[in-house]
Amino acid sequence: MNQHEILLKLENVEKRFPGVVALKSISLDVRAGEVLVLLGENGAGKSTLMKILAGEQAPTSGDITIGDRKVSALTPTLATELGIGLVHQELSLIPALSVAENIFLGRLPRNAFGKIDWKKARKEAGHALEALGVSIDPAVEVRSLEVAEQQLIEITRVLARGPRILLLDEPTSALSDSERSRLFDVIRRLKQRGHGIIYISHHLSEIPMIADRVTVLRDGVVVDTLPAEKADENTVIGLMVGRRLEEQFPKEVVPLGEPVLKVAELAAGKTLKDLSFSLRRGEILGIYGLMGAGQAEIAGALFGLQPVRSGAIEVEGRPAHFKHSSDAIAAGLGLISRDRRESLVPMQPVGPNLSLSWLAGRSLFSRLDLARERDEGKRYVSDLRIRPASTSQKLFFFSGGNQQKVILARWMSSGARILIFDEPTRGIDVGAKAEVFAVMSRLVSEGASILMISSELNELIGMTDRVLVMRGGRVSAELPREDVSQQNLLHYAS
Ligand SMILES: Nc1ncnc2c1ncn2[C@@H]1O[C@H](COP(=O)(O)OP(=O)(O)O)[C@@H](O)[C@H]1O
Ligand SMILES: [Mg+2]
Q1: How far is CA 174 from the centre of its chain?
Q2: CATH number of the 248-493 domain
Q3: What is the mean pLDDT of the chain?
Q4: What is 6-243's CATH topology?
Q5: SS3 for 469?
Q6: Taking residues 383-390, what's their average pLDDT?
Q7: Residue ranges per domain, the chain?
Q8: Does the beta carbon of 48 sit less than 6 angstroms from any atom of ligand 1?
Q9: Closest Cα to residue 299, out of 330, 270, 331, 334?
Q10: Range 126-133 average pLDDT
Q11: Does residue 423 surpass a pLDDT of 60?
Q12: Which of 19, 59, 247, 309 is the most interior residue, by most CB within 10 Å?
């Protein structure tokens, strides 16, 4: 066996579905005796690529070379003949048939009279299962089995055909640790015998267990192929989501100005007993605490949403006594609350959700500026890349991350100078989080100040200039940026 022999090669393979380019110019190869782990977020194109290799879908263009055979598309029969076996992501067994029938579907052994040799079928199925270390009776119907067992049968069925190139599309999603390690043993044996394997997984921890090389797909493009020893989790996540982890937190160093919000001995609600701080222009001040430490009352107390028991608040040098949130808004505050449902008007599109914040400073008799509402709606949709890019769709239909961007847009359009972010990334995905952080950086560089109340250690570490740690309703520590670490935050909070 030649270890470097190329078993399979793809050149510029492209696959278009109506309205979607699932794969763009994919080139990769698989060599004898290696496991190529294929990674990518949902929708990256992994399963489509596997179906093309198994002949179930035809590529729109490109070449596939298997051994010395070069084709523009495969059929299932040709793929099998050329030694390709695909274990599907979705189970493709026939529930009403027995395990043995499923394993030998379409090629059950026959006796000299042309009749199916059931005895032989069961025996061979038994052997095939044993090779995977599985003890399931080949005579039982597949529908009586657990999902994990069905997944093992699916794998057995493909292995029983003795493929030279084995494709596994997320085969371990339903398996226990011991079932997985048996599968890995089988894969290692195949490797030693010179087979080539493409293994798709969502478990990055499986990379060091099984991979020789790692290929990352993103939006239908191969972003990189790395030797397994260079494919540590940070690198791989960065490639998958398209930014490095440190870029997740686009913190900018902004010169700090005069104090804009001063809070002295504030007490509110049941848990907040004594909070004093001074927030400076351009600063992101973090507040961290474990559940019940008082931090959950801060936003409401500062924003006029809940009564203050004692203490003093000063905004830009003037004492503030906010009875309603409209008073706080008129004084230049904005709140991104922990529960988006509290602040959104879901049955309205972007525009009215922005203009809500303009009403605070106006007399009852002035008219709402609809032209401004429309223009600013358009501007923020494009500026913050709000999706759908629509000014007529109701926010109800937007994802959490996009709803959050609309709330950010609201305070940008109201010209709020002091922003309270209360758990700003709760329930939004990684990509939208990074965008929210980018907006935070932009806001402070334009002269705003942010109070960032968060229970996410990483985002406090990534974004703040300083963190107040709360314990028992009081500040237990004040950490400058250089001391904000997981260890310190947890230490002073507990
Ligand atoms: N049969 C299909 N028709 C239309 N679009 C499809 C079809 N199969 C997959 N897609 C689209 O192709 C892209 C890649 O999907 P898929 O290969 O399943 O990704 P992955 O397995 O990496 O999650 C997605 O945008 C998906 O919606
Ligand atoms: Mg898939």
Answers
A1: 20
A2: 3.40.50.300
A3: 90
A4: Rossmann fold (3.40.50)
A5: strand
A6: 88
A7: 6-243, 248-493
A8: yes
A9: 334
A10: 88
A11: yes
A12: 59
Are domains 6-243 and 248-493 of this chain identical in fold? yes
> Residue 184: what pLDDT?
93
Q: Which ligand 1 atom sits nearest the alpha carbon of residue 50?
A: 17
Ligand 1 centre distance from Cα of residue 46 (Å):
8
Q: How many CB atoms lie within 10 A of CB 111?
A: 11
Structure tokens at 260: 């804009």
Ligand 1 neighbour 337 (Cβ under 6 A): no
Tokens 């879901």, located at residue: 346
**Residue with CA at minimum distance from ligand 1 atom 14:** 45
Separation between Cα atoms, residue 107 and residue 395, nearest integer Å:
55
Q: Identify the residue whose tokens are 């997320």.
A: 170
Ligand 1 atom 25, closest CA: 43
Ligand 1 atom 8: the closest Cα is on which residue?
Answer: 48
Report d(CA 427, CA 57) in Å as an integer: 36
| Nearest ligand to the CA atom of 39 | 1
CA 374/CA 392 separation, integer angstroms: 10
| Higher pLDDT among residues 351 and 237, named by residue | 351
| The ligand 1 atom nearest the CA atom of 18 | 4
Which range, of 58-67, 73-82, 118-127, averages the lowest pLDDT? 118-127
C-alpha closest to that of 255 among 449, 10, 91: 449
Contacts of 131 (CB under 8 A, 6+ apart): 156, 159, 186
Nearest CA to ligand 1 atom 18: 47
Interval 318-355: pLDDT, tens? 999 999 999 999 999 999 998 887 788 888 999 989 98
Q: Is 42 in the pocket of ligand 1 (CB under 6 A)?
A: yes
In angstroms, the first-to-last Cα distance of the chain is 60
Quick one: which atom of ligand 1 is closest to the CA of 40?
22
Q: How far apart are CA 37 and CA 215, in angstroms?
A: 6
**pLDDT per residue as tens digits for the range 200-232:** 987 788 999 999 999 999 889 999 999 999 999
Residue whose Cα lies nearest atom 10 of ligand 1: it is: 22
Report yes or no: 423 and 415 within 8 Å, Cβ to Cβ. no
Nearest to 78, CA basis, from 88, 89, 67, 87: 67
Of residues 242, 307, 217, the one with CA closest to residue 268? 307
Ligand (nearest to CA of 42): 1
